[in-house]
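Example record for the data management plan.
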Amino acid sequence: MHKLTTSLTGPTRMTVDAIATAVAPFGFLVRGGFHPKTSDGVPGNSGTLVMIGNAGPAMWEAFRAAASEPVGPDPLDAWTREVLGGVARDLGATALFPFDGPPYLPFQRWAMRGEAVFPSPIGPLIHPVYGLWHAYRAALLFAERIPLPAPVPAVSPCEGCAEKPCLSSCPVSALAPGRYDVPACVVFLDGPSGAGCLSLGCAARRACPVGRDYVYAPAQAGFHMAHFRSANR
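Corresponding structural encoding:
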C-alpha cells in the first residue's frame, strides 16, 4: 500500500499539492474542490471536499501494471477503492466513491462545483482541455478547511461547436439532448455492427473534437464499453 511521504506540519497541515502528490503514482489527478455548504449534500461535517479523477491513459496504465489480469465483476472499481482508500487513510481523509450506492452521491454536481466542467449534449461532463476523456473516481473529505486555488474562468467548449458531431455520430441514434436510449445501444453492441464501438469506445464520444490528446487507447475504451454492456443487459 502506498504511504504518503510528504511531511505535513504546522496548523494548516494539508495542501492541494500534497494531495496531488499522494494520488499521482496511481495515475490520478486532483480534479478541483470546494468548501461544502449544507445544500451540497456532502455527508458529515467536512471542511473541504477534493475531487479525484483521471484524464487520458495514466490511470489505466497504473491499473494494468498493478492487475495485469483484472478479475471480478468490477476490477477497476475494486482497485480504485483499495488505492484511494489507502491514500485517504494516509491523509486523514474520508473517501467517497461514485460507484457506491444506491443511493448514489451527486458526483456530477460536486464536479461542477469543483472545477470548470459542463454538461455536454450527450450527457457526460465535458472539460475544456480533456474533452469527454476523463472521469471522477473519488471524493476526499477533510475535516479542516484547506486553501483551494481560485477558480479558472471558462466556458463550455460545446457553446462554440456549431456542428456538434456527437449528436449525429451514433450508429443507432441512441443519443439526443436529454435522452439516452440505453437498450438500443446495448442491442447494437451485441451485434456484429457494434464491434467498432465495443473495441474503440462510443462513436459519439470519439466524434467530439475536444481533448484529442487524451483519447483512451483501445484497451481502455474496450474495457469500459464491455463493462457498460454487461451492466446494462
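Summary line stored alongside the record: The radius of gyration is 18 Å.
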